[in-house]
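Let us practice reading a record.
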Amino acid sequence: MVSVTRLSIETSLPVDENELTPAEKGVLNLLAEGRCTPAYVGSELAIGADTARSVLDGFRDVDIVGKPYRGLYELQDGKGTDDEKYRNTETVLVDVPFDDDQFRPTERGILNLLAEGRAIPAYLAQELDVTQEWVKNRLHELTRLGLVRRRYRGLYELDVD
């Protein structure tokens, strides 16, 4: 039996799918699910993190993949980047089973950013203008409350289950 990897991306790519290696298709499929780190890609595809980073950087060179923060990759959506350095953390995008007044604006900011996709603590800290240690503590608490889950070492997402 032969295993075949097919792309599950619903957007058009500037490359021919037939010219992609199975590893490249796997990387794109993972990115279609959300932001990734090279370590996460490597563990999911059983390839080395350096190989994953090389594939991700190759896709960056042809503008298929963007890098919102060091070590964090995402599919390009064609919208460009925000001109604002920091995001508004007051808007609650996520329905939570708690009263809004139980969360600080920055905690709501973490939930808002995770609603946009997976993230690492350093990226969240930069976007919210707080320390990484503070973000890590809040992520631990939000994980305990069942709102956030750790997808892989240092990679977090909303827990939508």
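A brief commentary: The longest strand covers residues 65-69.
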